[in-house]
TrEMBL record:
SUPFAM superfamilies: Cupredoxins (SSF49503), Cytochrome c (SSF46626). Its cofactor is Cu(+); Cu(2+). Transmembrane segments: none annotated. It catalyses: nitric oxide + Fe(III)-[cytochrome c] + H2O = Fe(II)-[cytochrome c] + nitrite + 2 H(+). It comes from Aestuariibaculum sediminum. PANTHER family: ALCOHOL DEHYDROGENASE CYTOCHROME C SUBUNIT, BLL4482 PROTEIN-RELATED. Its EC number is 1.7.2.1. GO terms for molecular function: copper ion binding; electron transfer activity; heme binding; nitrite reductase (NO-forming) activity. It comes from the Bacteria. Belongs to the multicopper oxidase family. The lineage of its organism: Bacteria, Pseudomonadati, Bacteroidota, Flavobacteriia, Flavobacteriales. Homotrimer. Signal peptide: none annotated. This is Copper-containing nitrite reductase. The gene is nirK. Cu cation binds at residues 116, 121, 156-157, 165, 170, 311.
Length: 480
């Protein structure tokens, strides 16, 4: 007790002194910003970011980054050997402020196979640090740099073959906050796109080696956020509540592809273009170069699931560049009503009041009698109706439309197949071991057309050669 009182005047003086020191002056030349004390940097794995810098003074900041080469899953049953900064793709997020003196410790784990190094775009100096950080397995290299320019920067490995090291996941982001820090927001997340090149095609199972030729040709098998398909979907989605402000630190590691970053159903209130000082407002899609970044900010006004995509859209729906932001809270019907009505729109003729139901579809006058005729008419219907989704050879599209060729699901139950074409199908199904969870709308076809098209499907592409008759379709129809 006594000693505490004795030191009280000293404590008060120190307190006042530190308050005074926080009234930091503005330095035109950021290389002159003095550093006080030493501090170990907090590093985080994606999609998390370290605590904001706020108003803290510039410091000597110790960053310890461990390189790990490790096997992971790029998508279901597809394995890949990732090379990582800190054990994740993208690598650990580094958060600094302008004027910090970063003492960088690059550690190459003794069980790794290769030497690596690091090029930080936030560094002013040869190779962005690469020249002084080349480190063999079982070694640690130390170098230091002063952060002169505020902004969001990419870091990556720059060891030959550079493209291969980046393609295997060796990239991440380092943020240099301006004096006084970034304005406070409710939620901050770390997202980074990357393209992957595997020996096997997209979805081919097993451990997939890196494919140099595909990488050179920039023919990516996977384009993903945060290192793998689904890193930000379902239970891994990022979240916010209605009314909150969200800041996304978005980077693009490449190595090959430029990202057209977009959030479906949301407008970016503010974007720090290319991660720099200049901001744009009311942006729909922002371009993020390979080896570049952007800070994206918006307020979420309505609940729902907002889909993050690379708007080069096949990458999103076929190669994995798709994430989710789930927003919970009160609906706001003024901002977004939801579906109000589903009216009939039939511009052709007056007097048509409703869509014909399958019961009302007029049966053709001359029914196909022979098997050959059924096949001929069935193929026509297939090419007009089913082809768009199930594809010309019934092969389907992975993750979207199940195959009809050699389909165990189709061949197992003929009445169920008739029912699907009559009434449509939604919900999870498994076809040839692959799960599909999508929607097939009901097809506006007559019973005879359904009989023909299914006969065609059953007698093509290695299926079970059943014949479907009009009366079989009628039976299924009348059961309901
Ligand atoms: Cu490397």
């Amino acid at each position: 007790m006594k000693t505490q009182i004795k030191y009280l005047p000293l404590i008060i003086t120190l307190f006042l002194f530190s308050c005074f020191k926080n009234q930091e002056k503005h330095y035109e030349n950021t290389s002159k910003i003095p550093v006080s004390r030493e501090m170990v940097a907090e590093l985080t794995s994606p999609p998390n970011v370290p605590t904001p810098v706020g108003r803290r003074n510039a410091k000597k900041l110790i960053v310890k980054m461990e390189i790990l080469e490790k096997e992971g899953e790029i998508t279901n049953d597809v394995r890949y050997v990732y090379w990582t900064f800190g054990g994740t793709v993208p690598g650990s997020f580094i958060r600094t402020r302008v004027g910090d003196e970063v003492e960088f410790h690059l550690q190459n784990h003794p069980e790794n196979k290769l030497p690596h190094n690091i090029d930080l775009h936030a560094v002013t100096g040869p190779g962005g640090g690469a020249e002084s950080s080349f480190v063999a397995p079982g070694h640690e290299k130390v170098f230091s740099f002063k952060t002169l320019n505020p902004g969001l920067y990419v870091y990556h490995c720059a060891t030959a073959p550079v493209g291969m090291h980046i393609a295997n996941g060796m990239y991440g982001l380092i943020l240099v906050e301006p004096e006084g820090g970034l304005p406070a927001v409710d939620k901050e997340y770390y997202i980074m796109q990357g393209d992957f090149y595997t020996k096997g095609a997209n979805g081919e199972r097993g451990l997939q080696p890196f494919d140099m030729q595909k990488a050179v040709d920039e023919k990516a098998d996977y384009v993903v956020f945060n290192g793998k398909v689904g890193a930000l979907t379902g239970d891994n989605a990022i979240t916010a509540k209605v009314g909150e402000t969200v800041r996304l630190f978005v980077g693009n590691g490449g190595p090959g592809l430029v990202s057209s970053f977009h959030v479906i159903g949301e407008i970016f209130d503010k974007v720090h273009i290319e991660g720099g000082k200049q901001t744009n407002e009311n942006v729909q899609t922002t371009l993020i170069p390979a080896g570049g970044a952007a800070i994206v900010e918006f307020k979420v006004d309505v609940p729902g699931t907002f889909i993050l995509v690379d708007h080069s859209i096949f990458r999103a729906f076929n190669k994995g560049a798709l994430g989710m932001l789930k927003v919970e809270g009160e609906k706001n019907k003024k901002i977004y009503s939801g579906e109000i009505r589903d009216d009939i729109y039939l511009p052709e003729g007056p007097g048509i009041q409703s869509m014909p139901t399958t019961d009302e579809i007029v049966e053709s006058e001359i029914p196909a009698k022979s098997f050959d005729e059924q096949m001929k008419f069935g193929k026509q219907t297939y090419m007009q109706t089913c082809f768009a989704c199930h594809q010309s050879e019934g092969q389907g599209i992975p993750n979207a439309f199940p195959p009809l060729a050699k389909s165990d699901y189709l061949n197992a139950d003929i009445n169920r197949a008739i029912d699907i074409v009559l009434h449509g199908k939604s919900g999870e199904i498994t076809v040839n071991g692959e799960k599909y969870n999508s929607v097939m709308t009901k097809q506006m076809l007559s019973s005879e057309e359904i009989a023909n098209v299914l006969t065609y499907v059953y007698n093509s592409w290695g299926n079970s050669k059943k014949v479907v008759t009009t009366s079989m379709v009628e039976n299924v129809k009348n059961k309901k």
